[in-house]
Amino acid sequence: MAGRKRKKLALAAAPEHDKQTGLKAAKLKEPIQSKNTAERSHYFMKNTLQHRLGKDFFNQPCISLAKAFLGKVLVRRCEDGTELRGRIVETESYLGGEDKASHSAGGKRTERNTAMFMKPGTIYVYPIYGIYLCMNVSSEGEGAAVLLRSLEPLQGQPVMRQLRAARRKEGARPLKDKELCNGPSKLCQALNIPRCFDRRDLASDPEVWLEGDPDTSPAKPQDIVSAPRIGIESHGEWAKKPWRFYIRGHPCVSVVNKEAERESLSGKAMNDLGPSDVQPDTGQHNVKRT
């Protein structure tokens, strides 16, 4: 009887719906191991509040912010206190204004892209293909924002793997660590970033934030590759702008561009950025990001 009673209590405690999204919780193939001590390294056991990045960090032009994100750590605190962490290794800038690939091109404001016009550090989450999500962060500039494209998983990989598996076909092969967050919609799945995070403040939110890693040096200019953005080929000349940035040689980058890597070493990619390309009064986003 005692064993049967404990089983009933456990079933009663299991949530049927995600409290944040209102959607039915994904059925995981195995129970999530949520004990923080098993997921934390010696670094993460420290008081991480001192490493959290505040509003001043986000208050910079879009292209500068996209590069500054590289090497920073995105943190997601789950309802049970488990913290998932991933180092940002790939971003894209969307400058709005004349940038035809941006959701805010021409200064267009809609209910969906409101976050792009809010203060720097505001989260912009939007759906693609009706089922996937992408996470962006607003910067300086009217309608400007940075897309987070890829992360290097640092903490909570077992949880990330199960969150990803819940959205994959039954019997699919297990994902390698480098495949957990190597794409904008993949990282949203792996860190359980819901649509309701849209318009939240990354500088002060209790469930998701950005940290600096005191044990990692900032990426050097020669280690940052500037390449064309992904999934915006229909936008003509704007598809060729080298506004995707990633850490050279990192295995978690979603798409490697060898030509851009050679040009980045020669300095050609930066020479392609004219004065109008780096003005902080533009803003945006991709139409298609996978």
TrEMBL record:
Biased composition range(s): Polar residues: 279-290
Judged by the first EC level, this protein's enzyme class is: hydrolase
**Per the UniProt record, which EC number(s) apply here?**
3.2.2.21
Q: Which GO terms describe its molecular function?
A: alkylbase DNA N-glycosylase activity; DNA binding
Which Gene3D superfamilies does this UniProt record tie to the protein?
Answer: Methylpurine-DNA glycosylase (MPG)
Pfam families, sorted: Pur_DNA_glyco
* Subunit structure comment from the entry: Binds MBD1. Binds SSBP1.
This chain's protein is named DNA-3-methyladenine glycosylase
Species of the source: Amphiprion percula
